[in-house]
Design goal:
Blueprint (H helix, E strand, L loop, with lengths): L1 E6 L5 E6 L8 E2 L2 E2 L12 E2 L8 E5 L5 E4 L11 E2 L2 E2 L3 E8 L9 E7 L2
Parallel strand pairs: 4-11
Antiparallel strand pairs: 1-2, 3-5, 6-7, 6-10, 8-9, 10-11
Length: 114
C-alpha cells in the first residue's frame, strides 16, 4: 500500500492510496523432450500447483484430444497418448485455471522434440 500526500501552494492537502498486488503468472514452456534421458522428459507447468482445480488439455493438429489432466495437474504430461509416445511435432494446449482472477483459458503451442 502506497500513500501519497500532496500540498499545493495555497495549503490545500490531498491524499490518496494505491494498493499494488504482485501475482505470479503461470509460465508455460514451449517444448519438452520426452526421450527417457532424465532431462526435460515431462511438460512442467510452473505455479500450476497454486490452482488445484485447473484443467489441462492437449490437442493434436487435427483437434483430437491427446491429453486431459485429472483434478488439477498432479502428474506432468509425459508426451504419450494411451500409453504410446506421440510423434515429434507441435500440439496445442488449453489451460483453464478455474480461478476468478484468470477467467479466460490460457492456450498456445507445445512442441515435442525427441
Amino acid at each position: 500500500m502506497y500513500t501519497v500526500t500532496v500540498t499545493n501552494i495555497v495549503g490545500c492537502i490531498g491524499t490518496d492510496q494505491v494498493l499494488i498486488t504482485v501475482t505470479k503468472k503461470l509460465e508455460v514452456v514451449s517444448g519438452f523432450t520426452p526421450n527417457g534421458d532424465g532431462s526435460n522428459d515431462y511438460w512442467e507447468l510452473d505455479f500450476i500447483e497454486k490452482y488445484p482445480s485447473a484443467g489441462v488439455e492437449v490437442y493434436n493438429r487435427w483437434g483430437d484430444l491427446v491429453y486431459k489432466s485429472k483434478d488439477g495437474y498432479p502428474e506432468p504430461w509425459d508426451g504419450t497418448y494411451e500409453g504410446e509416445p506421440l510423434p515429434v511435432g507441435t500440439y496445442y494446449y488449453v489451460i483453464d485455471l478455474k480461478d476468478g482472477d484468470f477467467p479466460d483459458p490460457i492456450s498456445g503451442p507445445i512442441t515435442i522434440v525427441r
